[in-house]
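User: Before I run my own analysis I want an independent prediction to cross-check against. Here's the chain; please return only the structure tokens and, at the end, one sentence I can use as a sanity check.
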Amino acid sequence: MAAATVRAYEDNGSGPTSTSVDSVGGTAPKFGTDDNVQSTATLSIPTATGTNYSYWKNFYLDVTVAASTTTEITNRRISMGSSITAGLGLFFKANTGAYSQGSSTTSSGSNGPATPSGYTAMTTSTQVYDSSNAASTSTGKNGGYAQVILGVDATYAGGPGSTTLPNIVLTYDEY
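Assistant: Structure tokens:
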């Protein structure tokens, strides 16, 4: 049995456009307040209590080389590769339906950073975002999207400019 080759992708834009964001030759995503894979619109740090959020990013698993025998992918999971800096937070929600172009999430009036409605705080432990079964014997998008946003609150001490975020890790079971 030869397993499928699977890579991480992001869909963005009205089309959408699919871009590899895999650690093996992909484009590193950058969060901000536009729908580009590498955002050029900065996410501001609140000057008073509160959390500001980026546009969401639509990450998913893509089978680039089909399995040679009948197998399925299930239990698509997401986690952070390491802890995140205080005052920052990554949040996700499942979208197993149709593509929805990234846009803004309403800012919160509390620090934490506060978890926005409908989202789950991402941790270094894996959390399932799509438990459906899908054959890995054909190429293309496999399963649903993990819609991910970045939150920055007023306690973030890193100052303006860029910061390094932990890797976002997508894992799955194939059987």
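Sanity check: The first strand starts at residue 5 and ends at 12.
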